[in-house]
Amino acid sequence: MGVVKISLNDCLACSGCITSAETVLVEEQSITRFLDGISGKQLCVVTISPQSVCSIAVKRSLSVSQAAKLIASYFISKGVHFVIDSSLGRALCFDETYEELMSKTLRPILVSACPGFVCYAEKSHHGFLLPYLSSVRSPQAIHGALVKDFLSRRFRIPVISIYHAAVMPCFDKKLEAARNDFFVPGTNVRETDCVISTVEVDGLLDSVENIVDVKEEGWLGDFSRGVLYGNEGGTSGGFATAIVTRYVNEHGGEVTEAKVDQNHDVISVLQDGNIVLQVARIYGFRNIQNLVRKMKNGKATYNYIEVMACPAGCGNGGAQIRAESAEKRDQVLKSVEEMYSLIRNSATEEIRKIAAEWSALNPDWKKLLLTEYHVVDRSIVQGLQW
């Protein structure tokens, strides 16, 4: 029998565990593939998550701004045209998710930004969770559309001549980029061509000799100048907090917060003593399994849930830089969380500009912010190349 060849897409199609595909991930999406991929492209864009920036900043004893400039300088030295903050996609995600919450009757709505949780939902419980998943894409996937649709139209460059990579705190983001849902409509072109982990990028930064001086104005140049966008609510993106904040701004109410346990928080909005909105942050698979049991029993009273597979959320993602001992790991995570909380620049004005220009270029642009989910048959391994 010949050698079995498995593509990255097969990792999403089968019912095995994600960690069994580590070799495939390294071959399919790596720094080497990235450098090969950008060669000859007319436009190369790299999206960077602020969680990755904070992890690198803590490890190298830099400020967030210094770390951003260092990261951007590496990629620009390799031929990348723009390095951008994934928080822009997160801000678009907040807006769409809030509108979804206001219009969708099936509750709770589960945040779908975590690819580990999405894979779990598609492969487990016979699809029970899928109707509850938010139809809004993750920030990474929104950036895929931002680059391959908006920038393609803005600069009049065909998508085949554009390369988009993302630096993320989570290896599962490599799986997300390979989903069939995230190809440019009507083509075989991925919206995100490659995902590189925080730890992979950190290993390259010692080679940076000069910090670049970027002249590009606005959001396309902000990250390279050391400007990141932030919001309250923790290193998993602050989805729950954003929902509550906007609701209270529009409808009023008193906000209370309670900690159920280390990875389970509940935020309630009260009017006249009655709960009118209740959201939760639930991290880690033990808590996720408890949530599923409550949902099946009709005892999950939340309207909206920020769900993440990793305990402590995205700041503790599997692709972040690790300390050697458990004690040091806790301290590093605390430092990453503290640094993340200091990012306070608002993306509101930049998002307004992007939305207006994107709408003018493509009236159907908002459809590109949404996605679908699919039950994965655990008894079938699809599409293997024998």
From TrEMBL:
Which domain of life does the protein's organism represent? Eukaryota
Query: Which part of the chain is the Iron hydrogenase large subunit C-terminal domain?
Result: 44-318
- A Pfam family cross-referenced in the UniProt record is Fe_hyd_lg_C
Family note? Belongs to the NARF family.
The entry's function note states:
Component of the cytosolic iron-sulfur (Fe/S) protein assembly machinery. Required for maturation of extramitochondrial Fe/S proteins.
Q: List the protein's name.
A: Iron only hydrogenase large subunit domain protein
* Organism encoding this protein: Dictyocaulus viviparus (Bovine lungworm)
